[in-house]
Design a protein that fits this description.
It is built from five helices and 17 strands. The chain has helices at residues 22-33, 47-70, 77-90, 158-176, 185-197; strands spanning 94-95, 108-111, 114-116, 131-140, 143-152, 182-183, 201-202, 208-210, 217-221, 232-233, 238-241, 244-246, 252-254, 262-264, 270-272, 275-279, 284-288. It binds 2-amino-4-trifluoromethylsulfanyl-butyric acid and cobalt (II) ion.
Length: 289
C-alpha cells in the first residue's frame, strides 16, 4: 500500500508521489491515529475519473432539464420513463435503474406519499395537486451520475409546496457543510435540523451514497447524523445529498406487491431533492443540480 516518495503517485496523475498525494496520505493517517473515521483510498476519485464523471453528470442534468420542461398535469409517469429512455439514448447514455437489482424501468417517479423508488406506469396520471419526484441516474461511458428534482403539478396546497421548498433548502444547507477535512455528520445534521425546525421529519433507513465508478458506492450517507460525527470528507470524494423529508412520521414501508415503492407509514406526503457533490481542496462542487 505504501508508495515510495519518488514513485508515481497512486492516483494516476503521473507525478511523483512526494509531489502529489504524499501530504494528503500523511494528513489522513494523522486523523486515523486520532480515532477519526477516514475514507478508504478507493473512495477517492482521481482527476481523470472526475472528468469522466462530470461528463456523465452533464447528461444527467440534460435529461432532468427535459423532464422539467415537459412535465405537466395529465401525462403518465410511463411517459416520463420513455422520455428518460429516449434522451439518454440520444446522448449515448444508459439509464442506471433499468434492470438494477431487477428494477423494471429507467427512472423513479415518486408521487405524494411515495418516498422513493416509485415505478413509472402508463396507468399513473399526474393530477393537479400532486408533488412528484423524478430521480434520474445515468451511466455515460461507464461513469455514474445521480440526481432528482421535485415538481409541483397544477394547483398544489401551500403545505405541500412548503414541504418541497424546505426539502430544497435542506439540500442547500447540507451542501454548505461539505468542506474537506470535516466530518460528514456536519452535512447530515444541517439537513436534519432544518427539517425539524420546520416541523418535518427525515427518513432514517434510506440514505445517500458514494457515486461515480458505480451506482452505489461507500459511504452510506445519513441525513440524521450528528455534527462532529461520521467519516471525514476529503478532496476527491463524491457522494449524493438526497434527503427524504416527510410531513408527518419518518416511518416508511416497502410495497410488498412490487418490492420497490417506498411509502410513508401515515400516508402523508414526502419530498426529496438529490444532488451529487465533489469534495474539493477548499469546499465542494455540486456536479448535478
Ligand atoms: N436513484 C436512486 C438512489 O439514488 C436509486 C434508485 S435504484 C432503482 O438511490 F433501481 F430503484 F432505480
Ligand atoms: Co442516489
Amino acid at each position: 500500500m505504501k508508495t515510495g516518495r519518488n514513485e508515481p503517485c497512486w492516483c494516476g496523475s503521473g507525478r511523483k508521489y512526494k509531489q502529489c498525494h504524499a501530504a494528503f496520505d500523511e494528513k489522513l493517517e494523522k486523523y486515523a491515529l486520532a480515532g477519526i473515521p477516514v475514507p478508504e483510498r478507493s473512495w477517492i476519485k482521481t482527476s481523470a475519473q472526475i472528468e469522466k464523471i462530470r461528463e456523465s453528470c452533464k447528461i444527467n442534468i440534460e435529461i432532468l432539464d427535459y423532464v422539467e420542461n415537459h412535465i405537466r398535469e395529465g401525462i403518465s409517469t410511463g411517459e416520463i420513463d420513455r422520455w428518460v429512455s429516449r434522451i439518454s439514448e440520444k446522448y449515448g447514455a444508459v439509464p442506471a435503474p433499468l434492470n438494477f437489482q431487477g428494477y423494471p424501468r429507467s427512472v423513479c417517479t415518486s408521487i405524494n406519499e411515495v418516498v422513493c423508488h416509485g415505478i413509472p406506469d402508463d396507468s399513473v396520471i399526474l393530477q393537479s395537486g400532486d408533488i412528484v419526484n423524478v430521480d434520474v441516474s445515468t451511466i455515460l461511458n461507464g461513469y455514474f451520475s445521480d440526481s432528482s428534482r421535485m415538481f409541483c403539478i397544477g394547483e398544489v396546497s401551500p403545505e405541500k409546496k412548503r414541504l418541497v421548498e424546505v426539502t430544497r433548502e435542506c439540500v442547500k444547507l447540507g451542501v454548505e457543510q461539505v468542506r474537506p477535512w470535516e466530518p460528514i455528520g456536519n452535512m447530515g445534521s444541517a439537513v436534519h435540523e432544518h427539517a425539524k425546525a420546520n416541523g418535518f421529519s427525515v427518513v432514517e433507513e434510506i440514505g445517500g451514497h458514494g457515486v461515480g465508478l458505480e451506482f452505489h458506492e461507500d459511504p452510506w450517507v445519513s441525513y440524521v447524523s450528528e455534527r462532529g460525527k461520521g467519516v471525514l470528507m476529503v478532496p476527491g470524494m463524491m457522494f449524493t445529498i438526497e434527503p427524504m423529508i416527510n410531513m408527518g412520521t419518518s416511518d416508511v414501508y416497502v410495497d410488498e406487491e412490487d418490492g420497490w415503492t417506498v411509502r410513508t407509514a401515515d400516508g402523508l406526503s414526502s419530498a426529496q431533492w438529490e444532488v451529487t457533490v465533489l469534495v474539493t481542496q477548499d469546499g465542494c462542487e455540486v456536479t448535478t443540480w
